[in-house]
Design goal:
The protein is an alpha/beta fold. It contains 7 helices and 5 strands.
């Protein structure tokens, strides 16, 4: 079968992001299962805060098309997001809100056509004791209910994430690594099953 392609997305663009580190560990776990992982930096999409007047005047920005194309090329998505006041970050939600405004144009599909039924693995990291669990549940609801993605049941919220990684970026606690592997393993299994010819 052709190589499984995953897209890694972080809801934090911050240098030294804990979620970026967790996403990198997840990407490594996916690569060790034979997947090819591409990463997209949401900040580099340069999407302004959604504004209907901007959309009316200039259309949906190019950055949303880049996100659509990256999602279209992927068999599944690995996503890590911080929790801001119990919610996923504005960067994450704004990016997918713009994506949802893209209509089909010639051969280019609509934004929501490329997310529909796309397998999704969700993780989060926080220095706090819940690891971003509250936001993870909203992220799951948003990306499945509104954006039509298909999250696997497993998820992992890494608490005290500021203490969780060694200098090489690996998770120090084997239980954390096992929880991460459970998400990645489920994502790889579902994405591979959907990719295989029926
Ligand atoms: C506006 C704001 C709100 C936050 N709210 C929460 C929160 O509700 N729960 C939590 O665990 N951490 C919260 N934090 C702390 C973040 O978890 C912490 O900054 C984390 O390092 C962000 O993820 P990153 O390292 O991937 O950028 C908040 C941080 C900011 C800036």
């Amino acid at each position: 079968m052709a190589t499984l392609k995953l897209l890694a997305i972080s809801g934090s663009a911050r240098n030294g992001s804990l979620n970026g580190r967790l996403l990198a560990a997840a990407a490594q776990a996916a690569a060790s299962r034979g997947a090819q992982v591409e990463t997209i930096d949401l900040r580099s999409l340069a999407l302004p805060l959604y504004d209907g007047d901007l959309e009316k005047g200039a259309g949906v920005p190019e950055g949303a098309k880049r996100l659509r194309d990256a999602l279209q090329a992927a068999d599944g998505v690995l996503l890590a997001t911080p929790e801001y006041n119990g919610f996923p970050t504005p960067l994450l939600v704004n990016s997918f809100d713009w994506l949802s405004r893209l209509q089909a144009d010639g051969a280019a599909p609509a934004g929501l056509a490329v997310t529909a039924g796309k397998p999704l693995g969700l993780v989060s990291a926080s220095p706090g004791l819940l690891g971003g669990l509250r936001s993870l549940n909203f992220t799951r609801q948003y990306l499945s209910m509104a954006i039509a993605m298909m999250p696997v049941p497993q998820q992992f919220a890494l608490a005290k994430a500021n203490e969780a990684f060694d200098e090489a970026g690996a998770l120090k606690d084997p239980k954390h690594q096992a929880a991460l592997e459970a998400v990645v393993g489920a994502l790889v299994r579902v994405a591979a099953a959907l990719k295989s010819p029926s």
